[in-house]
Amino acid sequence: MTAKNKITLQIASIYIFVLLMGFLLRNYETNNHYQWIIIFISIFEIAMICYITGKVDGEPLGSIGLRNVSIMDIVHGVVLGVILYLLYTVPVELFTNMSVTANRPLPFSEMPYLYTLLFLSFINKITDEVIFRGYIFTKLNQLLSSKWAVILISFLLIYVMNLSKTLSFNGLNMYGAFITTVLYCYYLYYFSRKSIIPLIISDCLLIILRAGYGYIIWEAIYSFF
């Protein structure tokens, strides 16, 4: 088996497995232990990627972007998160009658479920970044010479994975998946550290901002006009 055939088989096998896990999670949404199922599957998928990278491929985890956290990782993650939030919300402010500043969250004390939401989202985002921007992105770059081909395939794989969970087409979800993929892949291409830690931080910040706390950013923007 050639090296490229091996890479293609690895990508296909991992992706099919992730799709199957997505269908499984969707069928257990009403289960009382749904949260624990998410945690177990996420940990299993991350462990699987780490095992394949270290034992099967014989490469360090740093090769898929799992590196020690640095101060600059945090800074980059915050900047990416804010940029991504604005890219998500600017079309809403400019082209619709909706206002993102109108949706403000309740205080944390009145939203106990928010802690669970953030925790589960955090687990999901770590898993997605390890699989898609860590392992699959790295392997696609070994397989293809065109960066835009890698970005396009990465976008399609991520969007189809999310589509398999919802089973419904949504233009906003497609837009969100596309701009996220382009921004994150651009970051991995042009920053030498090649760490996915900033992407995980960015994802988690985006969750908080889209939960309603992004109104602070928009009020700061409006204060200049």
General description of the model:
With 225 residues, this protein is mainly alpha-helical. The protein has one domain. 75% of the residues lie in helices and 0% in strands. It has helices at residues 3-27, 34-56, 71-95, 113-143, 147-166, 171-190, 197-213, 215-222. The protein is globular. The termini are far apart.
Draw up the topology in text:
Blueprint: H1 3-27, H2 34-56, H3 71-95, H4 113-143, H5 147-166, H6 171-190, H7 197-213, H8 215-222
Helix pairs in contact: 1-4, 1-5, 2-4, 3-6, 3-7, 4-5, 4-7, 5-6
Defining key terms:
globular; 75% helix; single chain; 0% strand; protease; endopeptidase activity; 225 residues; Rce1/LyrA-like_dom; mainly alpha; CAAX prenyl protease-like protein; transmembrane
As for the number of domains, it is 1
Number of helices: 8
Taking the alpha carbons of the first and last residues, their distance comes to 62 Å
Instruction: Give the averaged pLDDT, no decimals.
Output: 84
Structural class: mainly alpha
Q: Strand share of the residues?
A: under 5%
Report the radius of gyration as a whole number of Å. 18 Å
Please describe the biggest sheet, giving its number of strands, its sense, and whether it closes into a barrel: none
Q: Looking at the structure, what is the overall shape?
A: globular
Helix content: over 70%
Uncertain parts = none
Order of helices and strands: HHHHHHHH
Indicate the multimeric state.
single chain
Number of strand elements: 0
